[in-house]
From TrEMBL:
Domain Glycosyltransferase 2-like: 64-122
Keyword DNA-binding: no
PANTHER family: GALACTOFURANOSYLTRANSFERASE GLFT2 (PTHR43179:SF12), RHAMNOSYLTRANSFERASE WBBL (PTHR43179)
Pathway recorded for this protein: Cell wall biogenesis; cell wall polysaccharide biosynthesis
GO molecular function annotations of the record: glycosyltransferase activity
Domain of life: Bacteria
Name assigned to this protein: Glycosyltransferase
InterPro entries, per database record: Glyco_trans_2-like (IPR001173), Nucleotide-diphossugar_trans (IPR029044)
Keywords, ordered alphabetically: Glycosyltransferase, Transferase
Family the entry assigns: Belongs to the glycosyltransferase 2 family.
A Pfam family that the UniProt record links to this protein: Glycos_transf_2
């Protein structure tokens, strides 16, 4: 790994072997960004490869799967320990616009108590990473203010929080809340974090111009490979908040007969419930 002098901004990324190529492209997109430390949290059950990052730490899987919540906590703690005052979380899938870190840092100066979210563009297969400016198409599900604007979210907007690109000050992080490490495997921990922000009265803000670009990779919709995780984590979420997260995926699983509502909870319709034929429901 590389070694830089202490920096006041840090990018924190979680990664495992299937996304190592995406991660290397992300790190390349951050080259030349001033006053920046890159921190990779390796979440696989193997040893991380040599990576061009300033810090690489390991948070191996738990009994139920990848420990995304614990990994984000560990990465943020490392950033604070190394002196960063602005923490940027960026999924390994995502490329950073050249001014993403600067946009987040400016918003953090103006709104030091807020958690900040920039717009995300989902790239098509074969997209040229050298042409990101021309490919910018923020996902329509979330606000995307004009560059330079910061818009505070309403109470109903916290459910729109995505952990794939967000930022906050080190003071905001150390004051809490943290990600709940009872969540293991896929799904729910980011919405739980967002609802904790809302409960604590912490502002959520949309940051215009802090663009991230999600690199294409095949996925299934709904994510059949994560069905058990979604049910387990959804149940944990519902116990705290009185409602289930991931509504769209839950509805899709129910429509396909994979889950049923039994005694006030979603459960697998049968012990051997399996995904449909991929020829009928191919990855998007």
């Amino acid at each position: 790994m590389t070694q830089r002098a202490a920096a006041s901004r840090a990018v924190i990324t979680l990664c495992s072997a299937p996304r190592s190529g995406h991660l290397r492209r992300q790190l390349h997109s951050l080259e030349g960004v001033a006053d920046l430390r890159t921190i990779v949290v390796w979440i696989g059950d193997d040893e991380p490869p040599a990576l061009p990052a300033d810090d690489v730490l390991r948070v191996p899987p738990g009994r139920a799967g990848l420990r995304l919540a614990a990994a984000r906590n560990a990465g943020a703690d490392r950033a604070v320990d190394t002196g960063a005052s602005v923490l940027v979380f960026l999924d390994a899938d995502c490329l950073a616009a050249p001014d993403l870190v600067d946009r987040y840092a400016a918003a953090a100066r103006a709104h030091p108590d807020a958690v900040l979210c920039g717009p995300v563009t989902y790239l098509e297969p074969g997209a040229d990473p050298e042409l990101l400016g021309e490919l910018t198409r923020p996902h329509p599900a979330r606000p995307a203010p004009p560059p330079g604007d910061v818009v505070l979210a309403g109470a109903d907007d916290y459910v729109l929080f995505w952990s794939l690109s967000f930022a906050l000050t080190s003071d905001r992080w150390t004051s809490g809340p943290r990600f709940d490490e009872r969540f293991e495997g896929y799904g729910g921990e980011d919405t739980d974090f967002a609802f904790g922000l809302r409960e604590a009265g912490i502002p959520l803000a949309w940051v215009g111009g802090a663009h991230a670009y999600h690199q294409y990779h095949p996925t299934s919709s709904p994510p059949w490979q994560h069905l058990d995780d979604i049910l387990r984590n959804g149940r944990l979420f519902a116990e705290r908040w009185g409602r289930w997260p991931m509504d769209g995926w839950i509805a899709a699983f129910a429509e396909r007969g994979a889950i049923s509502w039994v005694d006030g909870s979603w459960v697998k319709a049968s012990a051997d419930a399996v995904p449909p034929d991929p020829a009928t429901h191919p990855p998007r």
